[in-house]
Amino acid sequence: MKCLILGGAGFIGSHLAEALLAEGHQVRIFDRPNLALPAELLADPRIEWHEGDFLNVDDLARVVPGNDVIFHLVSATLPKSSNDNPAYDVETNVIGTLRLLDIARTGGVKRVVFASSGGTVYGLPHTLPISESHSTEPLVSYGITKLAIEKFLHMYHALHGLDYCVLRLANPYGERQRVGAAQGAVAVFLHRAWHGETIHIWGDGSVVRDYIYIKDAIRAFVKTLSYHGEQRVFNIGSGQGLSLNQVLAGIEALLGRPVAVNYEHGRKFDVPANVLDIARARDLLGWQPSVNFNDGLAFTLAELQKTE
Q: What domains, with CATH codes, occur in the chain?
């Protein structure tokens, strides 16, 4: 298939590009200019690279038409900062996606696969693990815009026949995750611990999250290419929860030494626990994770050591 990855130079996108190439698909990548691109992909002649602005209709019109599948990984905001300017969150993510969908529906695109947020769209959980039928009451603008995009995808499918699939991702981690970003606790913690720096945690470390190894998550994206069922929204996680303190314990065990930690005031939008029910993805996509957290942590550290 002809596959376009919007945000293909990033953490998730670069791994997805490798996986699609390995399956024999054609890969076109669109991302912002002046990014530090992964060397493994930059030198691959099979990849068609395009730079541009996701909010620029002309830029999208250059790359969208003619693709069979679009993987929409772009987000201009983060959960941590999205509440600071919800209007910007909507303008960049929702409005930008609507322009994308208009071009896709007239440009021969068959399906859009959207990376949503299993960690934010549900809000405060009533039951654990959280299934796709759980109520959606996000506490951050980031989750609200992700949910809005899911609804617009459904609308464009119902009215225009544009097929779609939504993957509500847990917290992906692994090789190439940016250690200087404001998102991605595992990579940030591991990098700081490896360098003997203090790790900063919001709250007392009891917050529980679902962490999914990146290559497991990517296999779910690839599975959507051959899926033709009625359900279109899938949780993608490990199905197990770890507190931040347990993540720290795993890092200490891997390094063989204690790490310095500074606990700070908790944040109002951090729900106490988020663990995803992945039964639907297992039963309908034929997908399930295969890498446990400790092994994934070791793989991440090995890559970190190799690149520094």
A: 2-173+212-237 (3.40.50.720)
| Type of residue found at 295 | D
CA distance 115 to 72: 6
Edge-first strand order for the sheet with 111-117 is 47-51, 26-31, 2-6, 69-72, 111-117, 163-169, 233-236
The shares of helix, strand and coil residues in the chain, as percent rounded to the nearest 5, are 40, 20, 40
Q: Pick the range with the lowest mean pLDDT from 37-46, 144-153, 245-254, 277-286.
A: 37-46
Rounded to whole angstroms, the Cα distance separating 125 from 116 reads 17
Q: Confirm whether 213 is a catalytic residue.
A: no
- Catalytic residue (one of 122, 142, 164, 213): 142
The H-assigned helical ranges of the chain are: 11-22, 39-42, 57-63, 79-82, 86-89, 95-106, 141-160, 185-194, 214-223, 244-255, 279-280, 293-307
- What the block records as the tokens of 150 is 């899911």
User: For residue 278, is pLDDT > 90?
Assistant: yes
Report the predicted TM-score, pTM, of the whole model to 2 decimal places: 0.95
> What letter represents residue 220's amino acid?
A
The tens digit of pLDDT for each residue in 188-232 reads 999 999 999 999 999 999 999 999 999 999 999 999 999 999 999
Rg, the chain, Cα only: 19
Structure tokens at 11: 């953490």
- Tokens at residue 64, please? 């969208």
